[in-house]
Each structure stands twice: as structure tokens, then as C-alpha cells.
Amino acid sequence: MAYRILKTELFDRKFAKLSPDVQRAIEKIRDKLKENPFEGKPLHSDFFREKKYKKYRIYYLIYKECLILYLITISEKKDQQTAINTVMKFLEIYRQEVEEWVKQNKSNPTA
């Protein structure tokens, strides 16, 4: 079963700044991750992962219990550790955001 994709505003802002070619490549990666979110490299745990495309890293969280893949941010290799540390710092907030989204969309499964 395909995972539903959620994105942070930060992810959307960084994505919008990328070249069209990189955006298309990331969209293809996103589509593959919908079917197999565990394809990326695990970071600190099985549910926090990164997927690499050239010099870019896509950071995401997997919520198996509700089949949600949460795209958190994009960074270049040089900013990798800062991005990882930031995601780790806000794990609880991301979990709360996903839980709130699930609660709001329970009655609308196509949201």
C-alpha cells in the first residue's frame, strides 16, 4: 500500500528554490518513496531517513502506523549534519503535526 506524502513548509520553500531539473528528480524520488519509504538511508533510527540525489539530501520521517511519509527538509551535503541535528531536535513536534493531520483527515480519506 502506498504511503501518503506530507511536507513541511520548510521542505516546500527549499524545493521551490531548486532548478526545474532537480525538482523533477526529487519528484521522481518522492514517487518511489511512496511505494517503498525504507529505500533511503536510516539516520539514528529506522523511521528517520535520507535519500540522496547528487549533492542534495532529502530528509524524511516514516510513520508506519498511519502510512505517512513526512518530507521534512532538503539540504546540500555541506549542510547535512545541521539538517540532521535540526530534525532530531524537533521529532516530537513532527509527530504531533502528523497526528493532528490524521485526526483532521480521518473523515476524508482522499485528503
> Residue ranges: pLDDT <50 for 5 or more in a row?
none
**Strands across the major sheet, in which order?**
1-5-4-3-2
Shape: globular
The main pleated sheet reads as: 5 strands, mixed
Amount of helix: 40-55%
Which second-level CATH architecture applies?
Answer: 2-Layer Sandwich
Taking Cα atoms only, what radius of gyration do you get, to the nearest Å?
13 Å
CATH level-4 homologous superfamily: RelE-like
CATH topology: YaeB-like fold
How many structurally independent domains? 1
If you had to describe this structure to a student in words, what would you say it looks like?
The structure is a single chain. The chain has one domain: YaeB-like fold, CATH 3.30.2310. It has four helices and five strands; from the N terminus they run βααββββαα. 44% of the residues lie in helices and 30% in strands. The mean pLDDT is 93. It is globular and about 40 Å long. It has helices spanning 9-16, 20-35, 80-89, 91-105; strands at 4-7, 41-43, 45-53, 56-63, 68-76. With 111 residues, the protein is α+β, with helices and mostly antiparallel strands. The relative contact order is 0.17. Strands 1-5-4-3-2 form a five-stranded mixed sheet.
